Amino acid sequence: MHHDPAPPFLPYSRPLVTEEDIAAVTAALRDPILSQGNRLASFEAAFATAVGARHAVGFSSGTAALHGLCFAAGIGPGDEVIVPALTFAGTANAVRYLGGIPVFADIDPQTLCLDPEAARAAVTPRTRALLTVDFAGHPSDYDRLRAVADEAGCLLLADAAHAPGAAYRGRPVGSALADLTAFSFNPVKNMTAAEGGMVTTDDARHAARLRLFRTHGMTRDPAALEYPAPGPWYYEQQVLGFNYKLSELHAALGLSQLHHLPAYNAHRRHLARYYTQALAGLPLHLPAEPPEGTHAWHLYVVRVTAPPPRHRDALFAHLRTAGFGVQVHYIPVPMHPYYRRLGCSIAHCPETARYYTQALSLPLHPAMTEHDAERVVNAVHAFFETDR
Length: 388
Ligand SMILES: Cc1ncc(COP(=O)(O)O)c(C=O)c1O
Hints:
Layout: E1 10-11, H1 19-29, H2 38-51, E2 55-59, H3 62-72, E3 80-84, H4 89-97, E4 101-105, H5 116-122, E5 127-133, H6 142-152, E6 155-159, E7 167-168, E8 171-172, E9 180-184, E10 197-201, H7 204-214, E11 218-219, E12 236-237, H8 248-278, E13 284-285, E14 293-294, E15 300-304, H9 312-321, E16 324-325, H10 337-341, H11 350-358, E17 359-362, H12 370-385
Parallel strand pairs: 1-16, 3-4, 3-5, 5-6, 6-9
Antiparallel strand pairs: 2-10, 7-8, 7-14, 9-10, 11-12, 13-15, 15-17
Helix pairs in contact: 1-8, 2-8, 3-4, 3-7, 5-6, 8-12
């Protein structure tokens, strides 16, 4: 008897590495300079150009980039930073690494990003920054958030881990929309360096602090030294930094992937639009495109509005059993035990709480075909059509 093989498991995301990427990394490996060479400098320059920023500083991960961003922003013990309750924990952790206090505020249910009004209500005399997240690739409402930051006399920071290639009112995410913007290049992101991150800024002083921080707090720059150099070997450790450098291998992959980003994002957009038309009419709240912006479609999150037994948890189980790697992005950060012990909760974040009971990320990545998306759509329709 002949059995069709089961279709392979379809993850919610995976990297798409090309022969060109492999050649770039191989060339980097053949070079004796494996770290702190020209490839990182080229990647930084190309990334800065791509997002319309004056400076880009590479880091070993998106989390390290966020840590550097908070350091450059001057966050220290007791400083409050307003962050959305809905994000990956790394956003808030970066504030904690420096002794700062993440103050969780609710999301706008349309954009899934920090709600400017909720942010305004969370401002106190100790607020040092707003740190918004371009959730799922949707740009934050930067103009309104900037107005809140200006009223509070604080910085506007962005976690754009989901949003390379996104734009807000014609301005790319990573440009001067925020004072500092962090990106991630981990393997599930829109472009990858295997691991890696980047911070962009237009401010040369922020850029200098970022470079210091990712290299142990050390500098050799003669113009920046605090003491006269006794000889050419001299360098100084001026602050407590970390070893957060991005190797030449990672930079080679990142630079090569940056060339694919427009095409990869276009494919994500194509699949997202396919989902949106093919899932219309079901008891699902589908994600919106920004009216005056560009979505990077890092995630395609549907919100299941049907009551049990056709609720989110059941759809999650149904799709996992059918071989689809659906996910819930994310457990709201204040709900993690670490943050609960600090006294955090989502009691004041009703939109985040509702989102968390309904949200489900469908597979979406550039290695997927429309046929793969059609299989997902068919499985979702089957779930709502059968008697349960
Ligand atoms: C919103 C957000 N911020 C930060 C990070 C951290 O990035 P990384 O995994 O590169 O450390 C991620 C991804 O993991 C993320 O999704």
